[in-house]
Automatic annotation (TrEMBL):
InterPro entries: AB_hydrolase_fold, DDHD_dom, LCCL, LCCL_sf, PA-PLA1, PA-PLA1_DUF7131, WWE_C20G8.02. PANTHER family: LD21067P (PTHR23509:SF10), PA-PL1 PHOSPHOLIPASE FAMILY (PTHR23509). The keyword Protein biosynthesis does not apply. Residues 945-970 are annotated as: Disordered. Keywords: Membrane, Transmembrane, Transmembrane helix. Pfam families: DDHD, DUF7131, LCCL, WWE_2. Residues 961-970 have a biased composition (Basic and acidic residues). Residues 1174-1397 form the DDHD domain. This is DDHD domain-containing protein. One of its GO terms (cellular component) is cytoplasm.
Length: 1400
C-alpha cells in the first residue's frame, strides 16, 4: 500500500520516508502485503488508527489531497495548478452512491432476491414478466390501430391527424385551384364524422409560414375563427351547433380541441358540417380549455365548417374513438418500476430502452398516421419503426460500453457483487428523468423553442429567453459533471474526446451548401460520454439524455447532422427572388397596378416565370400574363366574389372604422401551366362600401365548347409509318356532359399542372390528354386526334387552333374591347353613323389616289394588335373581331375595315376573316354595302402590297403517299363518326362483365389498308350487342335506360403488330460485308398471281408463324402481356369493378388464347410473370370461327377439363397429349359456311362426332327477317363482290410502277376464274350433317356427361352452330362467314346470353 499516495504526498515512493532496511523480514506469504515500522510494529495499523481518529462526520471530499499542501513539492504554483487540472486529484474517487440507511431493508431486497433465487429461475421470471407486459400493452393498443371507428348509424368516420386535411382544404396558395373551387372535397349538405388523436392542442401547430390575410402564421395552432358557442341564443344554424364557423383551411383536429369538442389528452370523435359555407369574417376567440386563441380574419372566405353535437340523440353509439396512448404510457411506466428496481443494470438498460422506443413508435408519438381501415398503413408503420430500431440498438450498445455501463453496470472494485449500487436511488433519480426525455413531445417540445437556430430564435416569440435559460442550465450541468470527471481522474481523457467532437462539428459545419443541425438525439449522443461517472448527477443526466436520444431516433430517425437551407426552411419561401410589388389601386378605373422586382426583369426569370397569380383573401383568383395591371373591380364584381363581398358588407365585424371591407391581396410570379408559385406578402386594400360614379366594366364570360377533329389524325401507331401532311378541317362538338367534364378538368389542370386525362364517349373508351389537347384511345393503340377548346370561332363556326385562341384571348383581355364606347355615335341612328363614316373615307380618296396615304403603327392602335403570324387582329366589340394580312398597313384601309369589316356582306369583298368570341355570336348586318369606287381603291392598294411581297411558288405534283393518307383518313373519319357518338351524353354504365377479344389472321393488312381494323370490328360487336339486347322481347317491359345497358364491356386485344416478322420489313441480320443477309418476303415472291400471293403473305403467313418455334413463344408472350395490360388498365380506370372476365378469340386468336388458357397453373403465383400468367380468372372462353379442332388433331391432342388432369400434366407443353384450358365454360362457335371453323367435341371423345352440333337459335330473327334477307340478297352480293374487286385492284395499284404485259394480266384473271370455278364444283358435291343424329344426354355415359359438364358448366356442350338464313348459300357465305361474327346478330346474341348466365 502506497502510504504517500494515501496521505496525498505526490513526490516519491515510500522509501523516501521509511528506509527499506528498517522493514522486518517477511515470515510467510500472508504477511507479504503488510508494512512494518523500524521497531517491528505494524505500520498499516498505525495509519488506519490515525485515520479512524479523524472526524467521522467530515465530508468525503475532505479525503482528497492536493499538492498545494505538500511542503516537499518545490514546483511553482502555475505548474501545480496545471498538474492538478490535467492529472486530477492525487487520490481519484468515483464511487457509487451508497444505500439509504433509513431504508436499508428496501435497499437489500434486490440483493437478497439475486442471492436467494437461482439464475435460471430469475431468467424465467423475467421472460414471463416481459411477455405479460407485452400482452397487456398489445390488448390496450391493438383495437385502436386495427379496428376502424364506427357509429351505430354506419356513418363513415374519417381518421385524421392533427395537421391539415386535404378533404377540407388541400393547402395554401393555389392548391385548391382558381377561386378555391377544388375545395372542400366534401358535400355541404352532409355531416362528416372525424376521429382525432390525442395531443392535438400542440400537434396542430404550424412550423412553416401560412398566410392569413396580412398575417404569416407560424409557431401556433392553425385554426381561424370559430370557438365554442357560449349560449343557445348564439347558435346560428341549428340546435346541434357547438361552435362558431372556422375557416375551411383550419386544421380540423386543432379546431376541435380549441372548440372543446375533443379532449387534448385522449382525442375523440367530432361531427363536422360544411353547411356554414362562405362567411364574411372569422373573429378570433379564446380556447375552450387552456390554450391559445384562434387566429382572427376580418374578411370573407369562400368556405367554412362548424362542429355539431356528436350524439344527436341517445340512440347514437360510437366505438374506437378514444386515443389510448396515455393509458399505454401509464402501463409502461408502472410495469417498468420492478425492472428498474430489481434487475441488474444491463437488463434494466436494454429493457427500458426497447420499451421506450416502441412506446414512442406505436403510442405516444408515432412517426406516421395509421388508418385503421387500411392494414397496410400499420404495416408501413411497423416497417418504418423496424428500419430505425436496428441502427438505434447499435448506437445504444456503443453508449453502453463507453459510458452508461460505468454508471449502471458492474463496479470494478466489487466483482463479487454484480451491482452494489443503491437500487432505490436509481429508481428515484434515473427512472423519472429517463421518461422525461422519452416524452420529449410532452416536455421540451412544449417550450417556446422549435430549433436552436438563429432564424428560429428571431422569429418565435419567447424563444430567446428560453434559449438563454436552457444554455445557462446546460452550462451549469456540464460544469458539475466536468468536476466529477476530474475528480475521477479521467479529465484529460474525456477532454480529448470532446476536442475531437468539436473539431468534427467544425469540419461538418464548413461543408459547402450545408448547415450544421444538431438534433436533440445528436446532442444526447455527444453529452452521454461526459456522464461516465458513478455519482448521483450521472444518474440524473444519463437518464434524461438517454430518453432524449431514444425519442429522437424513434420519432424522426437518424436525421442528418448537416442539412441544406431548403430543408431547414421547410415550406417557407427561400427568398432568392423578390416577388412583384403591389403599387396602387385606382378606385375610379378599378385598375390594380404592380411592378416586378429587378430580378424578374432579367432574361433568366422572364423565360421561367411567364405569368402572375393574384390571390384574394388567400385564394387564387386570377392567373394571367405579367402585364403590370388588371381590373380588380371587375374581378370583385363577378358572381363568385360579388356574393362573398356582400357577406362582408353585411357583417359588422368585417367593417373597419370607415365602414370599409378589407380585401387582402397577394401577387406572385407563376408558371401558368404549372403549380410553381412565389409567395408574397399580403396588402390590405379597403374597398368602398358604396358604388363608384364610374361605370365598372368586366370581361363578359364565355361558355367554352369542346371539339375534336375527325378527318386528319395528329399521329397514328408507329407501325403505320404515318406522317401528318394537312391540318384538320372537320371538327365535331363533344356532348354537353363531356364538355362540362372537360372544362372542369381543364381548370384543374391549369392550376395543378400535373398530367390529367378526362374520359369521354360511351364507357370512357377514349380520353382527352389536357397536356397535349389530344383525343386518344384508352385501352388500345390507335389514331390520335386534335382537341380544341372553342372560345374563338371562324365564320364557319369552327374553333380556332389552341395557339391562335390563346394569343387572341390574351389580346382581348389586354385591349378590353368590351369597354369600347362612343357616346356621340350611340346617340346617332345607325344610318347616320354609316353616312358619317362614308363621308370621312371619301374625304381621303384624293390623297390616297395620289399615294399620299398615311401608314399606321399597330402598337399605337387601341383596338388592334399583331398576332405574330403575318396577320393582325382588330376587335370591333365584345364578341366580334377580324383578322387580316399585315400587308394592309395604311390608315385608309384600316378605316374601311373598322367601319365596314364586321358586315357579312363585306367580308369577301374586303378579304377578311371574321372571328367571334363564343359559338352563339351572330354576324352584324350592315345598313349599307361598301361603294364600288372605295372597294376598287382598297383592292388596288392590296394588289400593290401583294406584288411587293409575293414570291413565285412552283406547283407541286400529286403526292402518292399524301393521296393514300387522305384515303385512309376518310375511312378513319367514317369509323370515328360511326363507332363513337361523342355528341350524345351517355351516363357511366354499370359493368358486370369484361370481354377481351383477340383477333385472328390478317391484321398485318392494317399497315397498308386501315379498313382492316380489328378495333372497328370490336366496336361493331359492342354496338350489335346493344342493339340485340334492346330489341330482345324479354326486355321490353323494362325501362329505357335499363334496355340500353347490358352490363357488358368489350375491349380489343391486338397482337400482330408486336411480332418482329412482317412482309414489308427486312431482317436486320447483316453479313461480314455489312449488307443485309436476308431478303424480304416480297423479294422471294413469284410474280405470277400477285394479288393472291399478297393475300397469302399478309393473311396466311400468320398461321405459318404460329407453327414456327421461333415465333410461337413470342406470340404467346405478346398476347398474354396485352391481356394483362388491358385488364390492369381497365381496373385502374374502374377500381370498383368486381365482375367477371371473359375471353373471345376469333380465328387464329382462338387457338392462341386456348393455348394460353391451357398454360395457366391451378393456382396463380404470388409474383406472376406478366408474360406467362394471367392476372384474372377466365369465366367463359369463346372460340369463334376457330381452327382449334384441326390444330389439336394435327398435334394428336385430346381436350380434357381441369378436373380430369393429373399431377403430371405439363401446363407449358402445347404439344402434349392433353390440352386443358383453365376456364369455367368453353364454347366453340362457328358458322356452317366458315371454312376455318372446326368442331372440338370429337377431340373430347370421338363418339361425339356421330352427333349433330347444338344449333344456336335466332337472336331476334323470325319470318320477317328472312323476308328481309330475300330483299337484300341482290344488293348485298353485288356490294360484296364490288368490294372484293376493289380490294384486288387496290393490291395492284399499291405495287411499284412496273410495266406489265396485257397477256400476263389475262393469265392472272384466268387463274382466279379457275380457282373460283373449282370451289363451286367441289362445294356442289358436299353436304352437311349427313347421317348424323341429335345428341341426347341419356345416350352418353355418366363419365362423358361429367366431362362435358366440367368443360361447360352452363350447358354441358362445347360446339355450337350458327343458323343459316334462307338464302345463305354455302359458297357465297364462305366469302364472308369467317369475318361476319362481330356483326352477326345470332352469334352476338348467343355470346351475350351465355355471358349474362354468369350472373346467376
Amino acid at each position: 500500500m502506497n502510504i504517500a499516495n494515501e496521505r496525498g504526498i505526490q513526490s516519491s515512493t515510500v522509501e523516501e520516508y521509511i528506509p527499506l532496511e528498517t522493514f522486518g523480514k517477511l515470515d510467510s506469504m500472508e504477511e507479504s502485503n503488510r508494512l512494518f515500522n523500524a521497531d517491528g510494529t505494524d505500520l498499516e495499523s498505525d495509519v488506519v488508527d490515525h485515520l479512524e481518529g479523524e472526524d467521522e462526520d467530515e465530508d468525503e471530499d475532505d479525503d482528497t489531497y492536493y499538492p498545494f499542501d505538500d511542503p516537499y513539492d518545490k514546483r511553482s504554483t502555475v505548474s501545480k495548478w496545471f498538474s492538478l487540472i490535467v492529472k486530477g486529484p492525487c487520490n481519484p474517487r468515483d464511487e457509487a452512491p451508497g444505500s439509504i440507511k433509513a431504508l436499508q431493508y428496501i435497499e437489500d431486497i434486490p440483493t437478497k432476491f439475486r442471492h436467494g433465487v437461482l439464475p435460471k429461475i430469475r431468467l424465467a421470471l423475467l421472460v414471463v414478466y416481459l411477455m405479460m407486459w407485452m400482452l397487456v400493452v398489445y390488448h390496450s393498443l391493438i383495437s385502436y390501430l386495427t379496428l376502424a371507428p364506427s357509429s351505430s348509424d354506419d356513418t363513415p368516420i374519417l381518421i385524421l391527424d392533427c395537421g391539415g386535411e386535404p378533404l377540407f382544404w388541400k393547402g395554401k396558395n393555389n392548391q385548391c385551384g382558381l377561386d378555391g373551387k377544388g375545395c372542400p372535397s366534401l358535400a355541404d349538405s352532409e355531416d362528416v364524422i372525424i376521429r382525432c388523436p390525442a395531443l392535438c392542442e400542440r400537434e396542430s401547430y404550424t412550423f412553416s409560414f401560412l398566410p392569413v390575410g396580412d398575417q404569416m402564421i407560424k409557431y401556433r395552432g392553425y385554426y381561424i375563427g370559430g370557438g365554442a358557442v357560449q349560449s343557445d341564443s348564439k347558435r346560428e344554424f341549428n340546435a346541434q351547433q357547438l361552435s362558431n364557423p372556422y375557416r375551411a383551411d383550419s386544421y380540423p383536429c386543432g379546431a376541435a380541441v380549441h372548440a372543446g369538442v375533443v379532449s387534448s389528452y385522449v382525442g375523440g370523435c367530432a361531427r363536422v358540417s360544411f353547411g356554414s359555407k362562405g362567411r364574411g369574417s372569422f373573429p378570433g376567440t379564446k380556447a375552450y380549455h387552456k390554450g391559445l386563441s384562434s387566429v382572427s380574419f376580418d374578411s370573407f372566405f369562400p368556405s367554412s365548417y362548424y362542429f355539431k353535437k356528436l350524439y344527436p340523440d341517445e340512440s347514437y353509439v360510437f366505438s374506437q374513438c378514444k386515443d389510448p396512448r396515455f393509458m399505454v404510457l401509464a402501463i409502461n411506466v408502472l410495469l417498468g418500476v420492478p425492472i428498474v428496481f430489481m434487475a441488474s443494470g444491463a437488463v434494466m438498460f436494454w429493457t427500458m430502452s426497447v420499451v421506450a422506443f416502441w412506446t414512442i413508435c406505436m403510442a405516444t408519438d408515432p412517426p406516421m398516421k395509421v388508418e385503421a381501415a387500411d392494414p397496410e398503413t400499420l404495416a408501413n408503420l411497423m416497417s418504418l419503426s423496424l428500419g430505425r430500431f436496428l441502427p438505434t440498438c447499435c448506437i445504444l450498445s456503443v453508449l453502453w460500453k463507453c459510458s452508461i455501463e460505468r454508471t449502471l453496470g458492474k463496479s470494478e472494485d466489487h466483482d463479487a457483487d454484480p451491482d452494489p449500487r443503491s437500487p432505490l436511488q436509481r429508481l428515484v433519480l434515473w427512472y423519472p428523468l429517463f421518461w422525461v426525455g422519452v416524452l420529449n413531445n410532452l416536455t421540451f417540445d412544449r417550450l417556446h423553442l422549435d430549433r436552436f437556430t438563429w432564424t428560429d430564435l428571431k422569429l418565435q416569440p419567447g424563444s430567446m429567453a428560453v434559449g438563454v435559460t436552457l444554455t445557462v442550465v446546460v452550462a451549469i450541468c456540464c460544469c458539475v459533471q466536468a468536476y466529477h470527471i476530474w475528480r475521477s481522474g479521467r479529465f484529460i481523457h474525456t477532454l480529448l474526446i470532446y476536442v475531437c467532437f468539436v473539431v468534427g462539428l467544425i469540419l461538418i459545419g464548413c461543408l459547402p451548401g450545408l448547415t450544421l443541425r444538431i438534433h436533440h438525439y445528436i446532442l444526447a449522443m455527444l453529452l452521454i460520454p461526459g456522464c461516465a461517472t458513478r455519482g448521483r448527477t450521472a444518474l440524473l443526466f444519463q437518464g434524461l439524455l438517454l430518453g432524449l436520444f431514444i425519442s429522437g431516433a424513434s420519432r424522426w430517425g437518424l436525421a442528418s447532422i448537416a442539412e441544406t437551407t431548403r430543408v431547414l426552411l421547410r415550406d417557407d419561401p427561400i427568398g432568392t427572388i423578390e416577388p412583384p410589388l403591389l403599387v396602387a389601386f385606382d378606385s375610379v378605373t378599378g385598375l390594380l397596378s404592380w411592378t416586378s422586382s429587378q430580378a424578374v426583369n432579367t432574361v433568366k426569370y422572364q423565360n421561367y416565370y411567364d405569368g402572375i397569380a393574384l390571390m384574394i383573401n388567400d385564394v387564387e383568383a386570377y392567373i394571367g400574363l405579367n402585364e403590370g395591371s388588371l381590373n380588380l373591380t371587375a374581378l370583385l364584381t363577378t358572381e363568385t366574389y360579388g356574393s362573398l363581398l356582400k357577406l362582408s358588407l353585411n357583417d359588422t365585424q368585417a367593417l373597419d372604422a370607415n365602414q370599409d371591407v378589407l380585401v387582402y391581396l397577394r401577387i406572385a410570379m407563376k408558371i401558368i401551366d404549372e403549380t410553381t408559385i412565389q409567395t408574397a406578402k399580403a396588402m390590405g386594400l379597403p374597398i368602398w362600401r358604396g358604388t363608384s360614379d364610374a361605370t365598372i366594366y368586366s370581361a363578359p364570360e364565355v361558355n367554352a365548347r369542346w371539339f375534336y377533329a375527325t378527318d386528319v389524325p395528329e399521329s397514328k401507331p408507329v407501325w403505320t409509318d404515318y406522317t401528318k401532311e394537312l391540318d384538320p378541317t372537320k371538327f365535331v362538338e363533344f356532348s354537353k356532359g363531356d364538355s362540362a367534364r372537360l372544362e372542369t378538368s381543364y381548370s384543374k389542370f391549369r392550376t395543378s399542372g400535373k398530367p390529367l386525362y378526362t374520359g369521354v364517349s360511351e364507357d370512357k373508351l377514349l380520353q382527352v390528354n389536357h397536356d397535349t389537347l389530344e383525343l386518344e384511345p384508352v385501352y388500345w393503340e390507335g389514331p390520335i386526334y386534335e382537341v380544341r377548346r372553342g372560345i374563338w370561332f371562324d365564320h364557319n363556326k369552327l374553333p380556332l387552333s389552341g395557339e391562335l385562341t390563346s394569343k387572341i384571348e390574351a389580346l382581348y383581355q389586354k385591349l378590353k374591347p368590351y369597354e369600347f364606347k362612343d357616346d356621340e355615335e350611340e346617340a346617332m341612328d345607325a344610318s347616320e353613323v354609316v353616312e358619317k363614316s362614308l363621308a370621312r373615307i371619301k374625304g381621303q380618296l384624293e390623297e390616297v389616289r395620289a399615294k399620299h396615304h398615311q401608314l399606321y403603327k399597330v402598337d399605337e392602335q387601341p383596338d388592334m394588335a399583331d398576332l405574330g403570324n403575318g396577320k393582325y387582329v382588330l376587335f370591333f366589340n365584345e364578341s366580334e373581331a377580324v383578322m387580316f394580312p399585315s400587308t394592309i398597313n395604311n390608315s385608309f384601309q384600316l378605316d374601311i375595315i373598322r367601319n365596314f369589316g364586321n358586315s357579312g356582306s363585306n367580308l369577301s369583298l374586303l378579304e377578311l376573316e371574321l372571328i367571334s368570341r363564343g359559338l352563339d355570336c351572330s354576324l352584324s348586318k350592315s345598313i349599307r354595302s361598301l361603294p364600288e369606287d372605295i372597294a376598287n381603291l382598297y383592292h388596288s392598294l392590296m394588289a400593290d402590297e401583294d406584288t411587293k411581297s409575293s414570291e413565285t411558288e412552283a406547283e407541286a405534283g400529286p403526292d402518292e403517299q399524301l393521296a393514300k393518307n387522305n384515303e385512309d383518313n376518310e375511312r378513319l373519319q367514317k369509323s370515328m363518326e360511326e363507332d363513337y357518338n361523342l355528341s350524345v351524353d351517355t351516363s357511366d354504365r354499370e359493368i358486370d362483365h369484361l370481354v377481351l377479344c383477340v383477333h385472328g389472321i390478317g391484321q398485318i393488312l392494317g399497315i397498308r389498308y386501315e379498313s382492316v381494323n380489328f378495333v372497328h370490328s370490336v366496336n361493331v360487336l359492342r354496338k350489335t350487342m346493344a342493339n340485340v339486347f334492346s330489341a330482345n322481347e324479354t326486355k321490353k317491359d323494362k325501362d329505357e335506360q335499363q334496355n340500353l345497358n347490358n352490363k357488358i364491356q368489350v375491349l380489343p386485344i391486338s397482337w400482330r403488330h408486336g411480332i418482329e416478322f412482317t412482309p414489308y420489313k427486312r431482317f436486320q441480320t447483316k453479313n461480314a460485308a455489312g449488307r443485309f443477309s436476308l431478303p424480304t418476303l416480297e423479294e422471294i415472291s413469284v410474280d405470277g398471281v400477285k394479288p393472291l400471293r399478297k393475300i397469302t403473305g399478309d393473311v396466311v403467313l400468320d398461321v405459318l408463324l404460329y407453327y414456327e418455334a421461333r415465333y410461337i413463344k413470342q406470340i404467346y408472350e405478346i398476347v398474354t402481356t396485352e391481356l394483362n395490360r388491358v385488364y390492369s388498365k381497365y381496373m385502374e380506370m374502374n377500381p370498383n369493378f368486381k365482375g367477371k372476365v371473359h375471353i373471345m378469340g376469333h380465328s387464329l386468336g382462338s387457338a392462341i388464347v386456348f393455348d394460353i388458357a391451357s398454360f395457366q397453373k391451378p393456382t396463380r403465383p404470388k409474383e406472376p410473370d406478366l408474360k406467362k400468367d394471367l392476372l384474372f380468372d377466365i369465366e367463359n372462353l369463346f372460340c369463334v370461327g376457330s381452327p382449334v379442332g384441326i390444330f389439336r388433331l394435327l398435334r394428336q391432342t385430346n381436350i380434357r377439363p381441369r378436373s380430369e388432369v393429373d399431377k403430371s400434366y405439363d401446363f407449358l407443353d402445347s404439344f402434349g397429349m392433353v390440352s386443358s384450358p383453365k376456364c369455367q365454360n368453353l364454347y366453340n362457335l362457328f358458322h356452317p359456311c366458315d371454312p376455318v371453323g372446326y368442331r372440338m367435341e370429337p377431340l373430347i371423345d370421338p363418339m361425339l362426332g356421330e352427333y349433330k352440333v347444338d344449333e344456336v337459335p335466332f337472336a331476334i330473327k323470325g319470318f320477317n327477317s328472312l323476308v328481309q334477307d330475300l330483299q337484300s340478297l341482290g344488293s348485298d352480293v353485288a356490294e360484296r363482290f364490288l368490294k372484293a374487286a376493289g380490294w384486288f385492284k387496290s393490291f395492284q395499284s399499291s405495287e411499284k410502277k412496273v410495266s406489265k404485259e396485257n397477256s400476263t394480266l389475262v393469265e392472272d384473271e384466268n387463274a382466279l376464274g379457275d380457282i373460283v370455278s373449282s370451289l363451286f364444283s367441289v362445294e356442289s358435291k358436299s353436304s352437311s350433317h349427313s347421317g348424323k343424329k341429335s345428341l341426347q344426354k341419356k345416350s352418353l355415359s355418366p363419365s362423358l356427361q361429367k366431362t362435358l359438364g366440367d368443360l361447360n358448366k352452363n350447358n354441358g356442350r362445347v360446339d355450337y352452330l350458327l343458323p343459316m338464313g334462307m338464302f345463305d348459300f354455302s359458297i357465297i357465305m364462305a366469302l364472308k362467314a369467317h369475318v361476319s361474327y362481330f356483326e352477326d346478330e345470332d352469334a352476338v346474341g348467343f355470346i351475350m346470353r351465355e355471358v349474362l348466365k354468369s350472373n346467376k
